[in-house]
Design a protein that fits this description.
Blueprint lengths: L1 H17 L11 E7 L3 H17 L9 E6 L7 E7 L6 E11 L2 E8 L7 H13 L11
Helix pairs in contact: 2-3
Length: about 140
């Protein structure tokens, strides 16, 4: 009995250790940094609105559901919007960060996994949405 408990714990540890962290680990990531004519707080709010409208509040094929979280940057690092599948919270599919460029502009970086719908077209949709302050969802993206 005791041996099976240890074997079970070892298997769980291995599985947890193998969980992908998405954009933080992938070699296929696609990234773009661009300027936005607003302060970084507004750019960050726009990023959150984009992921909510275009991914979280949308009915996706195969009942896939997405969620997002706001991660506060530590020690001068920018705040982040992290998008992930509800069933895989450790695997970040899209990462959007905003930081001050000048008092009236911000620098936004969008990073996507580089697989499936998480590609350059996704970055273009996020960029257009954040720059215009109007969510413009990518056409035909199912996930």
């Amino acid at each position: 009995m005791r041996k099976s408990v240890w074997v079970g714990m070892a298997v769980v540890t291995l599985l947890v250790g193998c969980a992908s962290r998405g954009v933080y680990e992938s070699d296929a990531v696609v990234k773009e940094t661009f300027s936005v004519n607003t302060n970084y707080e507004a750019a960050f709010r726009r990023a959150g609105e984009y992921v909510r409208v275009c991914h979280v509040q949308v009915q996706h094929a195969y009942n896939v559901a997405y969620a997002w979280r706001h991660v506060k940057g530590e020690k001068g690092a920018p705040d982040e919007v992290q998008l992930y599948k509800v069933t895989e919270p450790a695997k970040v599919l899209e990462l959007i960060s905003a930081e001050t460029d000048t008092p009236s502009t911000s620098k936004v970086t969008v990073t996507v996994l580089g697989e499936g719908q998480w590609d350059a077209a996704e970055i273009a949709a996020a960029k257009a949405s954040i720059q215009s302050a109007t969510p413009m969802c990518r056409k035909g993206a199912e996930g």
